Amino acid sequence: MVKDSFVAGAYLVVSGSSIYRTTNLQSFELLVGNAAEHGYLEDQGQFARFNKITGIIESPRDKSFIWVADYNNCCIREVDLKTKITTQLAGQCQTCNVTDEKFSEALIAWPIGLISTSPKPTEVYFHENYRMLIRVLRIINNIWSVNTVYTSNVRANNILFDVEGLHMYLTTDTGLVKVHYTWSQPPEEIIRSNGGHNDGTLEQAAVFEPQNMIFLTKNLILLADTGYSVIRVINFAKNTTSSICVPQRGNIYTYTGDIDVCRIKKPTAFYMKGDSSIYVFTDDTVYLLQLTEVIGVSRDYSYRSNSELRFKYITYDTYNSKGYVVAYGYALYTTTDFKSFSPVTGNFFQSGYAKGSATDTLFGNITGILTTAHNPNAFWMADESYGCIRDVNLLTGYSGEVAGQCSVMGVVDGDIVYAVIGKPLELIEYEPDIIVFYDNTNKTIRQLEIGGNPWNIYTRHTVGVEAFGLAYDIYRKDFYVMHAGGILLVNAVQKLKVFNAIQLHSPSDMYFLNKYRILIADYGNNILHLANYQGQILSTMCSGSELNQQSSDSQISVQSCELLQPKLFLKRLDGSGLYIMADHDIYELLYESEPSGEKL
């Protein structure tokens, strides 16, 4: 199943040798082909004939068309979603061979899968099972061509890129293979077995006739194990394989329920809808796999091992005067209490680059959020993974670009139309028309000037360290760069000096309680420091324990509290204290009295 870009709210579903349109997975409209009759015929709607459809993707040339891999007919075909007319696109249908050439002269044999990556959406890859090759449909010298990029030496059941587009994964009848996107390294066997079913480490794992895959996170894959009618969970971070539902062979029956007792028949494919719902497709049934305890500040520690599924940033919701905006995983949410969350845009599990409506948008690692006076209903966000500053409208969830060329990473100053950003960190409003951020690619403080025409990006100061955080002293107009071993101060006249001599372990944020007193989040040591503006540590809060599992409703003094990986401060809207964002928790630091003066 893929999204239907031509009809809003609809999906395209492949079943056998036909393609259907649906909005609810209960009623289906035949688009092209005939489920009961295989063959080859270019025609309209129900009169067109396909053999075995093994891939479908939106055309990178026109969203009103789709490209279809027709396995036994040995070609890639195109379907006009407006007219329902099919045409031969690449290869010579029913002539099975391998020749790299422009679309009309190329030859293809047994194509599997049609996939692309966010950085290069106009390159569409498939696996050639006839000679065990990876090939690509792309523009070469302004001509759409078929080009071979790699010899895999395996027969694939399906292919998929990881969330960052760095590796292609191929399922085989008895294993899982990884290929690096540079196409210069030998294939790596992730799972190598003789068939059967076995969980445990990846070295011990056995799979049988796996088909499609879906990435939930950078390190977590669901695999449709057709041979044993079970869903496999592959965890790269833990080097393990486990199962959802009971494995079955022979006399198979179905039962819906908890993942430990459910039974399904020959799962083949997945489609993720929203943050926590996955459709599981079999030959004749669609199941819903519901993920739980993912969104929210629950005391569920199952996601702590994943470095990506964490809180990334918090700020104020300017559209709702009583609310906050949270970057969590790869998505944005609004909340008023940090207990319940409403999705705005993005996909909690999936990293990538895509702009547009709330349901289409994909983000990378969000490392800064800012609201400007230019549009109080929109947020600017630093996307570290794709090297740009993006914007999101809180009312509609629509996303776009502000500065930098997303997916083109580097450092080039000048007009924002041509300027290039590397790895942006933080967004600070230095003046109404000047936004400052840190760029970890060349380790500099840069600024975005939005007052003139055109807007421009300039390098403000070279610092020379990999930064974990950037803070701004509104009283003295100084910047503070937090790095692995401490804090550097860049003052208003561009002088660089060490802010403090105490051993800090990856400090990540500073909050100015007033002109004289500063809170420092010591991420690596799991503690907070109270310092003066000269860098002297006056006291330490919390004990630096390895893991905090105390009740979320308890109030504990700063002398005996425990917290884990404090990362970011935000003043409560009612002024009674601060929120402290950590990787997997939101803490509250409540004042006994309003902080003021040097004797705080």
Automatic annotation (TrEMBL):
SUPFAM superfamilies: Calcium-dependent phosphotriesterase, NHL repeat. InterPro entries: 6-blade_b-propeller_TolB-like. It comes from the Eukaryota. PANTHER family: NHL REPEAT-CONTAINING PROTEIN 2. This is Uncharacterized protein.
